[in-house]
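call fold(seq) -> tokens
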Amino acid sequence: MDKITVKNIDINITGTGDDDFISLTDIARAKNPKEPKDVVKNWMRLRSSLEFLGLWETLNNPNFNRVEFDPLLAESGKNSFTMSPTRWINEFNAIGIRTKPTKNGGTFAHRDIALEFASWISAEVKLYIIKEFQRLKIQESEQLEWQGKRLLTKLNYLIHTDTVKKYLVPIELSNEQKSYVYANEADLLNVALFGKTAKQWRDGNSGKKGNIRDYASTIELAILSNLEYLNSMLIPQKSNQQDRLVMLNKEANREKELFNKNNIKPIKRIEKK
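ret:
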């Protein structure tokens, strides 16, 4: 579950893409920190709110109980009229609002509805939510790009490993000895690009999970993918490791300079807290 912070209030978001649902309960804390659920109910009993909710369901939900909705709308506005998220969901087959009874739960609504609710709280809250939500979406897009680059390096690593197995690993070696050869060639790439081995990185980052490549930027991952391919081409040519290190390092520096000249923004993986 993601979250954004608006006016020192954490607002939880669940779902992805077109199905983002934002916590109305959290937004309501901007108006009433102690009883946010009452704020949500008060908004839902308004005729203008019900008209918006009904229209949203009509446009997005083929199973919306429109027959029962029209008489309900006529009752809204009366002093005795009440509405709750649970009633809205159960009686009208609504999908734009959800309830979660778990920790960090409460009432969630599709982002369209959540922004309508936020505008009722205040224009300031709505604008802050829009700003932070857009920032979150940009961040998610960047992380998808990072994951794509990381996957590419892993796929190229299979080609690299197969080349090492074919040309550098004698059949008579034990499994432990073979693992050393694979790790040694992987470290050749690490030194060429990052200037350190995997062990040297771990020794300096004992509190981090994963390995040096998990913390590389998209630019570094793109270069690493190219170095894996290049090394796979050099190994069959029987180039010794020292010569290959020099060539790989020169290529890494060339590509870094190229990315830098073209002002390509490096993106790093965001660590989950």
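The chain has two domains: 2-121, 138-261.
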